[in-house]
From TrEMBL, chain A:
Belongs to the universal ribosomal protein uL30 family. PANTHER family: LARGE RIBOSOMAL SUBUNIT PROTEIN UL30M, MITOCHONDRIAL RIBOSOMAL PROTEIN L30. InterPro entries: Ribo_uL30_ferredoxin-like_sf, Ribosomal_uL30_bac-type, Ribosomal_uL30_ferredoxin-like. Coiled coil: none annotated. One of its GO terms (cellular component) is ribosome. It comes from Coniosporium apollinis. The gene is MRPL33. Transmembrane segments: none annotated. This is Large ribosomal subunit protein uL30m. It comes from the Eukaryota. Residues 4-54 form the Large ribosomal subunit protein uL30-like ferredoxin-like fold domain.
UniProtKB/TrEMBL annotation, chain B:
The lineage of its organism: Eukaryota, Fungi, Dikarya, Ascomycota, Pezizomycotina. This is Uncharacterized protein. It comes from Coniosporium tulheliwenetii.
Length: 94, 127
């Protein structure tokens, strides 16, 4: 089931209150917020109302908040080695 | 006549517009990019709906009536109708929130004000 990935690029500050209402209905509360909605005529109509403010892409499945955070988190540059005891216990367990 | 209180044209006179009458080259470039972005959004929505054999009235109307960025004339891109301006055109950047409303295509607040002959209100931010 395809989804629209909608990201708010530009704020609706200073625009008619109806635009803010559409953004609220889409679940976009601040800039750079991303929401996923199933592809439907209703959502398409909402996007058309705020097309100057948002970025839209069609994706196969929605990502959770955690997954999106993981994608934008850079590699920390280190990794934690496991304790030798844990490793041995694992080997003996086999 | 030096320092923070030096006599300049804006300080010595009353009303002096400091907004240039035309857009600069980078402003025009960014404006075109915004127009292209709107085209891309509409195309994405259209493509996604077409896969499910769907469409909406607003989308069909947009496709039938609205030119894409490439099809627009420079006159429509960078200027907008004004009944008080010389030759009835003024720079698009003199409309309120012009970069959020892509007003050259007759939509948004610029078009709304134009319909009512109140394009001067938007410029002062009184909307």
């Amino acid at each position: 089931m395809p989804y629209f990935r909608i990201t708010l690029l530009r704020s609706a500050i200073g625009l008619p209150a109806k635009r803010t209402g559409v953004l609220q209905a889409l679940g976009l509360r601040k800039r750079m917020a991303t929401v996923y909605h199933p592809v439907s005529q209703d959502v398409a109509g909402q996007i058309m109302k705020v097309k100057e403010l948002v970025d839209v892409a069609e994706v196969e499945y929605p990502l959770t908040k955690g997954e999106m955070k993981k994608m934008r988190t850079p590699d920390p540059g280190y990794y934690v080695e496991r304790r030798a005891g844990d490793v041995r216990a694992e080997l003996e367990g086999r | 006549m030096f320092g923070p209180f030096k006599l300049t044209s804006p300080l010595s006179g009353g009303l002096l517009w400091k907004i240039p009458w035309r857009l600069s080259r980078p402003q025009k470039l960014r404006h075109r990019q915004r127009l292209q972005h709107v085209d891309a959004v509409v195309a994405t929505v259209d493509r996604a709906l077409a896969k499910q054999f769907l469409s909406t009235k607003g989308l069909e109307r947009w496709k039938a009536e609205m030119p894409t960025e490439g099809e627009m004339l420079p006159k429509d891109k960078y200027t907008i109708f004004d009944r008080k301006a010389k030759k009835y055109r003024k720079g698009i950047h003199s409309t309120f929130c012009w970069s959020s409303f892509i007003g050259g295509r007759g939509g948004g607040l610029a078009g709304w004000l134009q319909e009512r002959g109140r394009e001067d209100i938007g410029r002062d931010g009184l909307v």
